[in-house]
Amino acid sequence: MGKDKLVIGITGTILAGKGTVVDILKSLGFKHVSIRDLIKEELVRQKFSVSRANMQDMGNIMRKKHGLEYWMKMALDKYANDSTPLIIESIRNPAEIIYLKKNSKFFLIGMDAPYELRFERVKKRDADLDRKDQYTFEFDDARDKGFNEPLNGQQVGMCLVQSDFLIYNDEEFTDLKSSKIYKEVIEIYEKIMKK
Known about the structure:
alpha/beta; single chain; 14% strand; five-stranded parallel beta sheet; 50% helix
């Protein structure tokens, strides 16, 4: 694999709709690597409980120990012998973007959504990682964006600034294919495929 491999990265705030973008791109033939899943696997391997705080900590620890590009190397290595376009979900540090730009034909999609809508989604979603009271959601959200984080830590706010494309997902929908987000992702996909 080299600079000619198409890789689309997804970064964004908690519950902004990153998974929805991944689903759309997978339907267009992309393979998918979730950094979140790689970190979960590492937590299980090291016998830690899987919580959002532990995931954030483990992401930081491995970046500090093995280099800021550690998780991106893992993601690219997973499909090193496959020419299929790749989606890497949950990019959280600007150094990861630099690494991907050097090692693939890379484009970054940034996702955000109104705070109130994201908090409503966290209350509805049945996931062990989510802490559903407002104070802890605000804490997790601020840390994820980079507040009080070291350089090897979560820096989603800085990643969003470097996005090639931004999607503001302020819509709730029942039919994906008629949604605003679906249309935006298809437009982005078409622009990328022309480059």
